[in-house]
């Protein structure tokens, strides 16, 4: 069994209003020195078998075309082995 973790984040050049709101709240709650906060989303997909070759390529395609908006978001895909 394998776990595929896909993190999707707004590109650095895209304004992140939610991240800005959290950054302001952190300061009001006493956390100083926060330079930036970016929000994102995470997808955790557990699959049977290995994620290599064609299956890995399909996961990248799904991440790029279904789970993220390539115009404004980047994604990072990590495959973890589970037992």
Q: Please indicate the percent range of residues in DSSP E strands (runs of 2 or more).
A: 25-35%
- CATH-assigned fold name: Mth169, Chain: A
Estimate the helix proportion, in percent: 25-40%
Class from helix and strand fractions: alpha+beta
Number of helices: 2
Query: Which CATH top level class fits?
Result: Alpha Beta
Number of strands: 3
Q: Any idea what the CATH architecture is? A: 2-Layer Sandwich
Q: Give me the side-by-side strand order of the main sheet.
A: 2-1-3
Taken from the alpha-carbon principal axes, the silhouette is elongated
Q: What is the number of independent domains?
A: 1
Cα-to-Cα separation, first versus last residue: 6 Å
Mean pLDDT over the residues:
96
Unreliable runs, pLDDT <50, ≥5 residues?
none
CATH homologous superfamily (4th level) name: Phosphoribosylformylglycinamidine synthase subunit PurS
Textual characterization of the structure:
With 83 residues, the chain is α+β, with helices and mostly antiparallel strands. The chain has a single domain (2-81), classed as Mth169, Chain: A. The chain is built from 2 helices and 3 strands; from the N terminus they run βαβαβ. The chain has helices spanning 17-28, 53-67, and strands at 2-10, 40-47, 73-81. A 3-stranded antiparallel sheet has the order 2-1-3, with helices on one face. The longest helix is centred in the C-terminal third of the chain and has 15 residues, at 53-67. The radius of gyration is 16 Å and the shape is elongated. The N and C termini lie close together (6 Å). The mean pLDDT is 96.
């Amino acid at each position: 069994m394998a776990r595929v973790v896909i993190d999707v984040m707004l590109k650095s050049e895209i304004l992140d209003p939610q991240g800005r709101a959290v950054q302001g709240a952190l300061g009001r709650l006493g956390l100083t020195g926060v330079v930036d906060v970016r929000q994102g989303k995470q997808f955790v997909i557990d699959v049977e078998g290995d994620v290599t070759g064609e299956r890995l390529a399909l996961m990248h395609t799904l991440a790029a075309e279904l789970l993220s908006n390539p115009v404004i978001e980047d994604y990072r895909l990590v495959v973890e082995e589970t037992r």
